[in-house]
Amino acid sequence: MPEHKSFAENYRLYARSHFVKAIELGVILVLYASYSPLAKDSFVYIAMTISSWFLVVSWIMSPFVFNPSGFDWLKTVYDFDDFMNWIWCKGGALAEANKSWEIWWYEEQDHLRTTGLWGKLLEIILDLRFFFFQYGIVYQLAYSQDKYAAKQHIYYRVVQLVIVIQWSNRVPGK
Q: Within this chain, do residues 27 and 61 fall inside the same structural domain, yes or no?
């Protein structure tokens, strides 16, 4: 008999495979709608992106839809409280990943300590998708025209700051 999983456990199990990818794809679709000349006609945008939006919703909802009693109100309230306690709990010396988000995050990044040169190189190549994403918005979606020069400079700095913060959070041993 399948058992009910809490929000925190669902997040731990599906963060990389579902939630992070769904949020990245959702942000890309929103930015595409904001800056693409093809998205000015709403029917064209909807026709081109409906399957991608369905994928975003599916990735976010599937861990909860297929969770037994996933939408039972009382269990949802308890799960939410448990999830918030997991998020806000500071990791101590004896804390476990199922009790603290911070410890779970360090365990998720622990593979960087033991991986070889090729593994680290592959991790860097995979993280370069953010730079390619920035290139696509700035150069391919006509965001770098002269009238946007001031915005472009600010945009570059904000995106680079976000990337540096994300990368610094991944460095093991902090």
A: yes
Positive or negative, the CA dihedral 61, 64, 68, 74 is negative
Domain check: are 49 and 125 in the same one? no
DSSP, residue by residue, the chain: ------HHHHHHHHIIIIIHHHHHHHHHHHHHHHH-GGGGSHHHHHHHHHHHHHHHHHHHHHHHHTSTTTT-HHHHHHHHHHHHHHHHPPP-TT--TTT-HHHHHHHHHTHHHH--HHHHHHHHHHHTHHHHHHHIIIIITTTTSGGGHHHHHHHHHHHHHHHHHHHHHH-TT-
Distance of CA 126 to the CA centre of its chain: 14
Report yes or no: 112 and 170 within 8 Å, Cβ to Cβ.
yes
Q: How far apart are the first and last CA of the chain?
A: 41
Indicate whether 97 and 31 sit together in one domain.
Answer: yes
pLDDT at 174: 44
What is the reported pLDDT for 155?
Answer: 65
**Spans in the chain with pLDDT lower than 70:** 1, 91-94, 130, 134-157, 159, 163, 166-174
Domain that holds residue 36: 1-109
